[in-house]
Amino acid sequence: EVQLQASGGGLVQAGGSLRLSCAASGFTFDDYVIGWFRQAPGADYGGVSYMSSSDCKTYYADSVKGRFTISSDNTQNTVYLQMNSLNPEDTAVYHCAALTTTSGWNCAWNDPDGMDGWGKGTQVTVSS
Questions:
Q1: What are the pLDDT digits (tens) for 5-36?
Q2: Partner of 103 at 20 to 30 A CA spacing, among 11, 22, 42, 56?
Q3: Residue 13: how many CB atoms within 10 A of its CB?
């Protein structure tokens, strides 16, 4: 069973940075997809970013391209989301999520209900 624990959220001023961490257990970086969703107040979940072992490799939502970077430390089974140039529109609860296989996956990152692992969220608040 995949267990994911996100941390690193907080309150930051616009233009600032935060780094989220996702510690994964029951998960290996062999055949995988792991990344982040977020849910802003009153909104649906949106896919933010992922990294995978498939040809899809990495993904960033248009709204975060050039500002967010996903990375991993495979020895620590941890995935990071470096968030720079934050703006108030980035305010949301951020969830780490994972698929344990890329078999049959179409590179989409828009279905939280389809994840094999889903972590408790961490709140990111960006003040203007």
A1: 999 999 999 999 999 999 999 888 899 999 99
A2: 22
A3: 10
